[in-house]
UniProtKB/TrEMBL annotation:
Function recorded in the entry: Inhibits signal transduction by increasing the GTPase activity of G protein alpha subunits thereby driving them into their inactive GDP-bound form. Binds to G(i)-alpha and G(o)-alpha, but not to G(s)-alpha.
Keyword flag Membrane: yes
Gene transcribed to yield this protein: Rgs5
Species classification: Eukaryota, Metazoa, Chordata, Craniata, Vertebrata
Localization: Cytoplasm; Membrane
Designated name of the protein: Regulator of G-protein signaling 5
InterPro entries: RGS (IPR016137), RGS_RGS5 (IPR034956), RGS_sf (IPR036305), RGS_subdom1/3 (IPR024066), RGS_subdomain_2 (IPR044926)
GO BP terms: negative regulation of signal transduction
GO cellular component: cytoplasm; membrane
Short name of one Pfam family: RGS
Organism: Nesospiza acunhae
Domain spans labelled RGS: 13-129
Keywords of the record: Cytoplasm, Membrane, Signal transduction inhibitor
């Protein structure tokens, strides 16, 4: 469990929140309660994808991420604009560690300006900083 001081830093830094295993778990629980957990799941999947070294594994993961989060009517479709979706699809013709960067940045920005402020006001967060 993080110290209240550590948890307080998350108010100003989604990055710190997402990099802390306890913070990520709390944030995901909160998002689940709001039915928007796919954003954090997508972010985590992209982070994992970027660490993939094998081109074969990378292609497999890219396909899985695309089918789960990007394609229209995907089970956990994230809310990205048509331009970002088109760029991402083009990037997947030859998967590279940066294939999902644009979409991941969009989702990060969405969580930062939308989900994080709500999380900070939530009971989930107030329990952590006590």
């Amino acid at each position: 469990r993080p110290s209240p001081e550590e948890a307080l830093q998350w108010r100003d830094s989604l990055e710190k929140l997402l990099q802390n295993p306890y913070g990520l778990t709390s944030f995901r629980s909160f998002l689940r309660s709001e039915f928007s957990e796919e954003n954090a799941e997508f972010w985590v999947a992209c982070e994992d994808y970027k660490k993939t070294k094998s081109p074969v594994k990378m292609a497999e993961k890219a396909k899985k991420i695309y089918e789960e989060f990007i394609q229209t009517e995907a089970p956990k479709e994230v809310n990205i604009d048509h331009f970002t979706k088109a760029v991402t699809m083009k990037n997947l013709v030859e998967p590279s560690p940066t294939s999902f960067d644009m979409a991941q940045k969009r989702i990060f920005a969405l969580m930062e300006k939308d989900s994080l402020p709500r999380f900070v006001r939530s009971e989930f967060y107030h329990e952590l900083i006590k």
